[in-house]
Design brief:
Chain lengths: 288, 123
């Protein structure tokens, strides 16, 4: 009786796999039609009532047995009673009973199957509208399906996702940051709402990260400017010194006759012994 | 002023029904539910809702009971289980009576298979 999907009918398949042959025969008897539909329905109702009663009796007996044991092991009595009461029905039968009860509570008998938001038949409560996990799956599935249908939006969304992962990986580039900021602004302004695949709050966080990165980049640029100025100043100093050196180098060499004349003048004003020493020094040949 | 179209209204109702149905299945049959992708499960629910309506079951509870029985017994349980086929084909039974018979069948069947429910002879 299993269906095409792996889960549909899987509960019956699992139960059949573990069932005794006698139970299978009983199941065939249960599945056989009755004399008429009404009597079959009544028979099913009676058997379900018997099953519920039997489960209750077994639970009571289990609880009593556990209480009897409690005199000997008071600390573990409650847990044993709970376990035995739960075991009064098998796990699958318990699940079916509990699920059926939940359906009675969460689904209205007076409301059409596809009309939203109105209270259930008891008028005492509104059935819980959404299972969070299921709703999230549905929203993401619908978003993905919608994006696939809007060709113009898809590249922007893909770019946004790529940029988001880029930023998360911590490998930002100036172009990527600018693109991310642009897309984020589009999303925030509603110009391109479909690009908000990572969610608006996620994009806000990304924009914040991008702004921080831009600030860091600006700081780095400022530092680079300072270093460049310093280098220029140093360069200017070096250039000045070089220019001075060049000017020095460009001066015409001294006239030897004039220098000798100056020396002669200077020597003429000195005492005799100084003149003698200087004349002797001048008479020696220069060192090689 | 925003206006919700009938199509949107219907979609909201269908999504709400789907989500509650998935919640029941996931809560009570987590192992089997894990074997079924969400999209395929929702599609199967839609197919079973359509079959339930074809059998005259229209209210939420009856349809949910029918869909849940399909989850337990397989997608074509309405044809493969003679007792259920007999009940569903009976025009004199109300939708709620048919749904209750389906739910009772499921409870008794799983009780029998786990050796917890004494079987009676067929009526």
């Amino acid at each position: 009786m299993s269906g095409a999907l792996p889960g549909m009918g899987g509960a019956l398949g699992d139960a059949l796999a573990n069932a005794a042959p006698a139970a299978r025969q009983q199941l065939q008897s249960l599945a056989a039609p009755g004399a008429d539909a009404a009597s079959k329905a009544q028979a099913l109702a009676a058997q379900a009532a018997d099953a519920a009663s039997a489960a209750a009796d077994q639970a009571t007996q289990a609880g009593q047995a556990a209480q009897a044991q409690a005199s000997q092991a008071a600390q573990s009595a409650q847990s044993q009673a709970d376990a035995m009461a739960q075991g009064a029905q098998g796990p699958a039968a318990s699940a079916v009973s509990a699920a059926t009860e939940q359906i009675e509570n969460d689904f209205s008998a007076a409301q059409d199957a596809c009309s939203p938001g109105s209270p259930c038949a008891c008028n005492g409560h509104i059935p819980s509208a959404f299972d969070r996990a299921g709703a999230e799956d549905a929203v993401m599935g619908a978003a993905a399906a919608g994006l696939k249908q809007v060709a113009a939006v898809l590249p922007a969304a893909q770019q946004a996702l790529a940029l988001a992962s880029l930023v998360q990986d911590g490998v930002p580039t100036p172009g990527a940051i600018d693109s991310l900021v642009a897309i984020g602004r589009q999303v925030m302004s509603g110009a391109n709402p479909s690009a908000a695949v990572p969610s608006a709050s996620g994009l806000q966080a990304l924009m914040q990260q991008a702004s921080q990165m831009r600030a860091m980049a600006a700081n780095a640029a400022g530092g680079a400017t300072g270093a460049a100025s310093q280098a220029v100043a140093q360069g200017q100093g070096a250039a000045t010194r070089a220019a001075a050196a060049a000017q020095d180098a460009a001066r015409p060499p001294a006239d030897p006759q004039a220098v000798l004349g100056q020396i002669g003048d200077w020597l003429g004003q000195q005492p005799d012994d100084v003149v003698r020493q200087a004349s002797s020094a001048m008479a020696r040949p220069p060192a090689a | 002023m925003n206006v919700i179209s009938p199509q949107q209204w219907h979609r909201m109702g269908r999504d709400s029904f789907d989500a509650r149905m998935v919640a029941v299945i996931r809560r009570h049959h987590p192992a089997q539910a894990a074997r079924t992708p969400f999209e395929q499960l929702v599609q199967a629910i839609h197919r079973q809702v359509a079959r339930a309506r074809a059998h005259g079951l229209n209210d939420e509870r009856s349809v949910a009971t029918y869909v849940y029985a399909a989850w337990l017994l397989g997608e074509e349980f309405d044809r493969r289980v003679p007792a259920i086929a007999q009940v569903l084909a009976e025009r004199r039974l109300h939708a709620a009576e048919k749904a209750k018979a389906i739910g009772d069948f499921c409870k008794v069947a799983f009780g029998i298979l786990e050796g917890r429910t004494p079987a009676r002879s067929a009526a």
